[in-house]
Design goal:
2 copies of one chain form a homodimer. Chain A is of the alpha+beta class. In chain A, 39% of the residues lie in helices and 19% in strands. In chain A, strands 4-3-5 form a 3-stranded mixed beta sheet, with no helix packed on it. The longest helix of chain A is centred in the first third of the chain and has 13 residues, at 7-19. The N and C termini of chain A lie far apart (52 Å). The interface between A and B is large, with 70 and 70 residues. The structure holds a DNA duplex (30 and 30 nucleotides).
Chain lengths: 149, 149
Amino acid sequence: MIQNLNEHQKEDLQEALAHGGQKVTPQREVVYAVLLAKRDHPTVDEVFQRARESMPGLSLATVYNCLETFVGCGLVRQVNHERESTRYCPNLAPHAHFRDESTGRVHDIELPDHVLTTLRSLLPSGFETEAIEISFHGHTKNSRNHTSN
Amino acid sequence: MIQNLNEHQKEDLQEALAHGGQKVTPQREVVYAVLLAKRDHPTVDEVFQRARESMPGLSLATVYNCLETFVGCGLVRQVNHERESTRYCPNLAPHAHFRDESTGRVHDIELPDHVLTTLRSLLPSGFETEAIEISFHGHTKNSRNHTSN
DNA sequence: GTGGGTGTTTAGAATGATTCAAAACCTCAA
DNA sequence: TTGAGGTTTTGAATCATTCTAAACACCCAC
């Protein structure tokens, strides 16, 4: 069963929500508490299951709503931005992707070896990586005028 | 309309497929040609549309099959690995994620500022980034025995 | 060339995550 | 008390992807 939020956490929640003119609700408290309770990157459905233990009437849609709200006010991060269709590219050289949010276009960004090495060095021992995915999200200046491919 | 593969490209395809004991087929040629023709990271559906121009009978399922095969034999990259449920975490400090493929568990990896700076410096001018997502995929040693969390 | 066998393609159904729509709810303020 | 807002609920709708089963195509042994 999920602990209630402590004072400090309640404040964080209240403050973050206040920005968008939004309110603290019992559902939001529970969902937030679930996220804080076990930091194992739960899926929406996992959050739903856990939250229901303290609030049986809670609906899945509400969990989606809460999470979206939290992400919107910077209280929580989404681990998997890229929930659109999978994309493919025949560029096999190690490279990152830059996704221009205004156009939806994806650009390749070359990755020098030393960057990959540095990244790999951040991993605790015992972690063996087969792939590193890096994606930037942002905007390109004058992106409105880009016509190139 | 998509160009046919040139000799060199045909060889690449043939060779890559040969590894898994798989064959070059007209459909695979067309799909591969589509990927090479316009390197704009198309979605499956976009590939499907383009490929149909040269091969009207082609089915969507086949495009999925071809792409999966290509990824399997390292001919093509999938831009969006993470096609499972979106996950959420309340860790707001900049960090990457390591996904252990054997357990499905996701670990946070701290990201020192200098790494982020370096990464940002790879972008061409005019690219302004709001978020950088980094995810490692691999295995942790003894992951079979992990019971924590 | 005939008959399997194997891997490939096809169409359509099934799945699963997510979003949408509409009604019911709550709360606060006039 | 009424009304306006945002919020929650339920269930339906959407959309990418995967699955299933049937039709194909190719190749090798006979």
